[in-house]
Amino acid sequence: QVQLVESGGGSVQSGGSLRLSCEFRGWTYTSACMGWFRQAPGKEREGVASTDSDVTTTYADSVKGRFTISQDNAKNTLYLQMNSLKPEDTAMYYCAAEGPNCSGPWLNHRAYAYWGQGTQVTVSS
Q1: Ordered DSSP codes for 16-41
Q2: With 31 labelled, which of 1, 38, 96, 102 sits at a CA distance of 20 to 30 A?
Q3: How far is Cα 79 from Cα 18, in angstroms, rounded to an integer?
Q4: 124 in the Ramachandran plot: left (φ > 0), alpha (ψ -120 to 50) or beta?
Q5: Cα 96–101–107 angle (5° rounding)?
């Protein structure tokens, strides 16, 4: 079965960097839409960044210029490079994917059928 496995979370000081990875295991589709979402305690899940097989990218305004989403098809892996981290970036981060019939909206969690278990990112001041 399809399984998305996240890694790379941890604790970092304000201004630091982290790179999150999401491995697609058991993925048989030739194309996909992929995204990163986050959820802080007491808040709703929000879209952070998305990309697709055409490498079109979309970012939330709060992370533009600091975060970069990318993919390595040979490794079946999605990445989120996070630079200049701020305390407000603290959250559980989830990767998500949808098959070839994906149509967006790209930063809406309801557009994605497959989800990882989440990886915690904590940014201290």
Answers
A1: --EEEEEEEES---S--EEEEEEE-T
A2: 38
A3: 10
A4: beta
A5: 40
Token couple for 9: 């979370």
What distance in Å separates the CA atoms of residue 33 and residue 6, rounded to the nearest whole number?
Answer: 16
Q: How many Cα atoms occupy the beta-carbon half-sphere of 85 within 13 Å?
A: 23
- Other C-beta atoms lying within 10 Å of the C-beta of residue 1: 5
Instruction: Report the largest interatomic distance among the alpha carbons of the chain, rounded to a whole angstrom.
Output: 42
| pLDDT per residue as tens digits for the range 29-82 | 877 899 999 999 999 999 999 998 888 899 999 999 999 999 998 889 999 999
